[in-house]
Write a structure and sequence with these properties.
Layout lengths: L3 E2 L2 H21 L6 E7 L3 H17 L2 E7 L5 H13 L5 E4 L9 H7 L11 H8 L8 H12 L8 E5 L6 H10 L3 E5 L6 H5 L4 E4 L17 E4 L3 E2 L5 E2 L4 H4 L5 E2 L6 H16 L8
Parallel strand pairs: 1-11, 2-3, 2-4, 5-6, 5-7, 7-8, 8-11
Antiparallel strand pairs: 9-10
Helix pairs in contact: 1-10, 2-10, 6-7, 6-10
């Protein structure tokens, strides 16, 4: 059996088309164009690429993006002041700070300074707390993007064992909360987990978000599982690979995401969706 590929690129394109249509509708009805402020500190090449993708997506669907490229040695206080200004700016619905930040800046302090209603990444403790209480508002982009992929393929959640490998604040932890809300039995594995293969073998839904090539061996995959690979590592030869031995895994899984072209495009599409949520385009029950 060869797994069916989950085409994140196509599903993200579909979501973006829907968002674009929604913006046109709302603007015809007299709403203002949604605005996203994007802050990049320093000149990390990978971060630069991610920011460019996000800004181009904004342009594509009709979100106005405000770009702040700041020097590596900016004072923490200056960054906090910029965020205060953006919190009060009525043209700005969402504020995004590209991580990682330079070492002299406390990321948690910066992220907590963003108005939770403008926190389109969903990293603010208020938004994570809402998710933990099953009343999410702005949801972390990658986990929610993965839920949209899983819904798209008609994944069952209730009665399924979901195993999340990696417990970061950005992906693993909120992913486990999303899967709990959907009714799965959830196991979270991390660097202190003994016998990772034991847990992976039980996964009906496997989400790996570590960033270690070959971490998950294909023979651990439960036949018929749904496999989501969030890991992105650039190898010395320039190719991009995930956490999971793809060639072998796709012979065992029922569904699998490719790397690249699986989860990545969904993260950006959900960021756009969150910007519309922050702009008041959706009622809260959505």
């Amino acid at each position: 059996m060869t797994a069916q590929l989950i085409d994140g690129k196509a599903i993200a394109a579909q979501l973006k088309a829907e968002l674009s249509e929604k913006i046109s509708e709302k603007m015809t009805a007299g709403h203002r164009r949604p605005g996203l402020a994007v802050i990049l500190v320093g000149a990390d090449p990978a971060s630069g690429i991610y920011v460019k993708n996000k800004r181009e997506s904004c342009e594509q669907i009709g979100i106005q993006s405000f770009f702040y490229a700041l020097p590596d040695n900016i004072e923490e206080s200056e960054l906090l002041k910029l965020i205060t200004d953006l919190n009060q700016d009525t043209q700005v619905d969402g504020i995004l700070i590209q991580l990682p930040l330079p070492h002299h800046i406390h990321a948690s302090k910066i992220l907590e300074h963003i108005d939770p209603r403008k926190d389109v990444d969903g990293f603010h403790p208020y938004n994570i707390g809402r998710l933990a209480q099953r009343r999410p508002l702005l949801r972390p982009c990658t986990p929610y993007g993965i839920m949209l992929l899983l819904n798209h393929i008609g994944q069952r959640f209730k009665g399924c064992h979901a195993v999340v490998v990696g417990a970061s604040n950005i992906v693993g932890r909120p992913m486990s909360l999303e899967l709990l809300i959907a009714g799965s039995t959830v196991t979270v594995c991390h660097r202190f987990t003994h016998d990772l293969p034991y847990f992976v073998r039980q996964a009906d839904i496997l989400v790996s978000a570590v960033g270690k090539p070959g971490l998950i061996h294909s023979e651990w995959i439960k036949p018929g599982a749904t496999v989501i690979d969030v890991g992105i590592t650039r190898l010395a030869d320039g190719t991009i690979t995930g956490d999971i031995e793809f060639a072998g895994a796709k012979e065992r899984a029922a569904w699998i995401t490719p790397v690249p072209g699986g989860v990545g495009p969904m993260t950006v599409a959900v960021l756009m969706r969150n910007t519309l949520v922050a702009a008041g385009y959706y009622d809260h029950h959505h």
